[in-house]
Amino acid sequence: MFPAWGFPLAVIATCAGIYFLPSPIDPEPFVFEKPPPALVGSLQVNKKLQSGQRIFMGQLKGPESFTVDDEGNLYTGTVDGKLWMISGDQLHFITQMGQNMPECGTPDYEPICGRPHGVRVDQDGNLIVADSYFGLYKVNPRTGEKTLLLSSEQGVDGIPFKFLNGLEISKNNLIYFTDSSSKWERRHHKYEVIETNHLGRLLTYDPVTRTARTVLSGLYMANGITLSPFEDYILIAETSICRIIRYWVSGANAGEKEVFVDNLPGYPDNIRLSKKGLYRVGISTTRFPSFFSPFLDALGPYPFLKKFIAKVTPLSFYSIFLHKHGLFLEINDKGDIVESFHDPDGSVTWTVSDVFEHNGKVYLG
């Protein structure tokens, strides 16, 4: 017969065992100073994204970012480590960033297959690619030949890359890019968000001198970036704390950074400049007001709870907290949200990485 004290003892033993288990994360407290913004005015929920359509279904797996060449060909990289060219209604394979295996496209094989994130065309018509695992590359879009500019192992300023992400090229061909974390790889990005560390960097690479340097460090999951029309500042998405900062490249404020917009209604990904001069921001996961605080808002001040949850739950578990609601924002040069585009039930898309405009169409990653 099971003794009456047996169950409490088992519970105590289980809790003690969990307490002494090492946690995969070492979180810091972070407090969102405001609740998520109300969904009114420019944030009013609508169905604008539901007028879109999916293209190349089953072929393009998780396209992250887009760029275009002088001939109007689109380029993108996918979660299975592949680079693609879209020419009209035709899809052309360019190259595999790592090894091409049947398992490519699954998290465990990303370090083997590669994961191209930021993609841009340079002045010579080559693709510049930030691969999250392997480093910064130049790729010939016609032949698929890859030239490694900076390896992740080499890194910059003695710090290896762990998660290369956003990319932008200035008019003088200077390459800006982000390393989201010096600790967590892309496949563990959920730990990066939960941990709320500030181990991200904005970096530059000069293809003429073949030198790189750190521009900014201490960023919260540095993600998408874009230069202003006059290239006097650069915007950087800090995904894990739902804000965008501005770093002044030139002018009287050169070298200074400031908050451009914070308390966003979601976790920002890529930032792109539209033909209207507005900044379009893809939202990877929404952060909406409700009766209860959003999961990460509530956990933010309590590192102990974060550690505990990371001990007892697999990474895939956190997906149950994701609200399947597609969203991107249009923001003016003052940091005001002027319009939002929604897919409230995620029927066309429920996560938006990139918002790229070309020939009167808007392509969503």
UniProtKB/TrEMBL annotation:
GO cellular component: endomembrane system
InterPro entries registered for this protein in UniProt: 6-blade_b-propeller_TolB-like (IPR011042), NHL_repeat (IPR001258), Strictosidine_synth_cons-reg (IPR018119)
One of the Pfam families matching this protein, by short name: SSL_N
Range of residues in the leader sequence: 1-17
Entry keyword set: Glycoprotein, Repeat, Signal
Top-level taxon in the UniProt lineage: Eukaryota
Keyword Glycoprotein: yes
Positions of the Strictosidine synthase conserved region domain: 165-251
KW Transcription (keyword) present: no
Gene3D superfamilies recorded: TolB, C-terminal domain
Molecular-function GO term, any one: hydrolase activity
Family membership: Belongs to the strictosidine synthase family.
PANTHER family: ADIPOCYTE PLASMA MEMBRANE-ASSOCIATED PROTEIN, STRICTOSIDINE SYNTHASE-RELATED
Name of protein: Adipocyte plasma membrane-associated protein-like
Organism whose genome encodes this protein: Dromaius novaehollandiae (Emu)
